[in-house]
Amino acid sequence: MMASRPASLSASLALAFGQLFDGAVLRILLKSLGVTLIVFIILATCGWFTVDWALTRSGLDDGLFAGAEALRGALSFLLAVVGLWLTWRIVAMGVVQFFADEVVVAVERQHYPEEASMARDLSFAEQARNAGRAAARALLSNLIAIPFALALMFTGVGTFAVFWLVNAVLLGRELQDMVWLRHRQGVQQAPPIGRGQRFVMGGLFAGMLAVPFINFLAPVLGAASATHLVHRTNRRKSST
């Protein structure tokens, strides 16, 4: 039983890769990527000015010493970049939440037409609530993790490990819910994939989100893979 889980996830990932550049999924990928970049540009600009203002108010103004302006600018840029790195997953997944239904529908129509015919459409309000809750959980969890990550900074890998662990748990749930919320028959019905399987899936894509360039594909690829994993697991359980 345990040995079949990685194979199931591997097969789901391979199927997702195969459909990633199909017309319907590619349009969603480009659309979500465009929105994510726009949000990031806005956040980066606001973050830079906010940090610059805070440093100026704290006494690091232009008249403090020669080069104070340049130092303040460098610190503002560095802190803004760190902040964006920490919030990339939150922003990217929050954006994809709004397009998740389109990703799931595109995959289901091609591979799972029977399940697609029985799915319920999520309203814009419900999608917005789901995205807001996921973003709030991610933001709160990552803020709680920051002190532990800082305490382990001397280890070299401890900081990354803390954020990976937290986001693996969160991301596994988010990816599962993108699919399962359209198909469950009631709030009490448990999803077909278990916690261990969900954690492995979340850990895989949490790692992808930390890799430059691949992180642009990870949210949509994750939604597609989760669709395959949920339905393949559900079919296997139904047939036993």
TrEMBL record:
Record's keyword annotation contains Transmembrane helix: yes
Record membrane topology: Multi-pass membrane protein
Entry keyword set: Membrane, Transmembrane, Transmembrane helix
Transmembrane regions: 33-55, 75-100, 144-172, 199-218
Pfam family, one: EI24
Keyword presence, Membrane: yes
Subcellular location: Membrane
Protein name as annotated: Membrane protein, putative
Species annotation: Aurantiacibacter atlanticus
Taxonomic placement: Bacteria, Pseudomonadati, Pseudomonadota, Alphaproteobacteria, Sphingomonadales
